[in-house]
Amino acid sequence: MSVDLEHYLVLGAILFSIGLYLALAKRNLIGVLMGIELMFNAVNLTFVAFSRFVESPNPLDGHVFVVFVITVAAAEAATALAIAVLLYRVRDTIDVDQIDLLKW
Amino acid sequence: MDDTGTVIAFWVLAAITVGAALGVVVVRNLIHAVVFLILSFVSVAGLYITLSADFVAVAQILIYAGAVSVLILFAIVLTPRGDRGNQETFLRLPALLLALLVAFTLGYVAIDTSWTISDREGFQETASVIGESLLDKYVLPFEIASVLLLVAMMGAIVLVRPEGATEETE
To answer: What does the DSSP 8-state code read for residue B53?
Structure first.
């Protein structure tokens, strides 16, 4: 018994779809953001697994990409949570069902 | 990756990761959901170690398990009259169907494709090679990422600044 690339890819697919479900179905805005963070994690896991197993002249480029993804994800989290706090100040709720300013 | 230690570590860490992610879905209290999310982040860092990605594993613990989860907790604490529950909207069933569809499609493609697997050993040390390529081949994205972080920081400060803060500074 051994651990191959496919194990990591299937694990990444499962983690990504759990994050997708959270991002689509959660009522709380912070729950949606947690789902997005889980999806980032799944993608990073897939990058690192490909970088470890697949034939390539520069195998560590996958790790460099993961570093960039982590950077952008941190920036995204900071701005998104600032928007959540601002939205709470304006509407007094972070329930995505009640945030319907664009609906007419 | 045939030795028993790696195999056991993979299955245990995979079970913890998926279990904690499902905990984020199932648990009815938002603070408990964040705790499950941190557990999932830490076990993904363990999976990086089984893939011999030491630098990425440490960065994962520092940034995700440390910084991002503290940011999420701050956002929960800063919205005191908001809902603390973790319920689903009316989109629950379509979202479940779409998530299952994505999982099956990605999993099928991952298993069905014949990847060109190399037989090289795990990396010895990754930090020095990553650092060299960040300042050599990827120096332009590196600089753009630093500008992006600066803009995100300034944007977050400007967005959550209290009303009328500009007048007080004069």
So the answer is: -
Q: Which of B25, B47, B141 is closest, CB to CB, to A18?
A: B25
Q: What is residue B52's DSSP assignment? A: T
CB pairs under 8 A between A and B: 253
Contact state of A78 with B75 under an 8 Å Cβ cutoff: no
Q: Report DSSP state, residue B61.
A: I
pLDDT (tens digit per residue) in A8-25? 999 999 999 999 999 999
Complex ipTM = 0.91
CB-based contact A63:A48 (threshold 8 Å): yes
Mutation target among A61, A85, A88, A97 for the B interface, most CBs of B within 10 A = A85
Distance CA A70, CA A85 (A): 22
Q: Is the pTM of this model over 0.80?
A: yes
Chain A residue with CA closest to B62: the answer is A70
Q: Is the CB of A28 less than 8 angstroms away from the CB of B86?
A: yes
